[in-house]
């Protein structure tokens, strides 16, 4: 990136200026830390639906080889590779060779709550949306995680994905497997009737 146009129209060209513009832009999107957030209302949480014993146990049992392989297979072949250049397709193709090492690392994370620093590195890169990209809004950010990191996340999400229906209302689309936003579109009947009337007029 040789230069970047700021919101006020000025152009920055030095690495330090470009870095500052990027930090300011994404800091604004993320918002600021609030040190006065209210804590969790424990009585209110306990008053609502909770996971049963079997569900809680299923979330904390030892990670199996099958879970790890399923997590790897759930990562798309064309996902962005990490900074080491190895994508999920490489791990799938060489699974017989790297299998034991990957399993040891993944299990070590769940048992000891530790991850080797080199595998806990995420690189965020910017890809221009078009050839004439000038401002930061003309770029899309891509996050490149190591595949071991992705496998661990996939194991967690696969486990968590089995239980939210017990504690999340069925009329909520987020975090519920198989739910889509268009399943819960609410359209006032008056507006619906008016729209149908107009369509009927067009086709008569």
Protein model, in words:
InterPro entries: Retrotransposon-Effector_Assoc. The protein is mainly alpha-helical. It folds into 2 domains: 1-32, no CATH class; 62-172, no CATH class. Helix content is 45%, strand content 8%. It has helices at residues 15-30, 42-47, 53-60, 65-73, 88-93, 95-112, 147-160, 189-203, and strands spanning 4-5, 11-12, 123-128, 139-144. The strands form 2 sheets. A two-stranded antiparallel ribbon has the order 1-2. A two-stranded antiparallel sheet has the order 3-4. α4 crosses α7 (147-160) and α6 (95-112) crosses α7 (147-160). The chain is extended, with a radius of gyration of 24 Å. The termini are far apart.
Span of the ends, CA to CA: 58 Å
Strand content: 5-15%
Give a quick account of the main beta sheet: strands, pairing sense, barrel closure: 2 strands, antiparallel
- How many E strands? 4
Helix fraction bin: 40-55%
Count of folded domains: 2
Strand order of the largest sheet: 1-2
The helix/strand order is EEHHHHHHEEHH
- Structural class, by secondary structure, is mainly alpha
Mean pLDDT: 81
InterPro entries: Retrotransposon-Effector_Assoc (IPR052343)
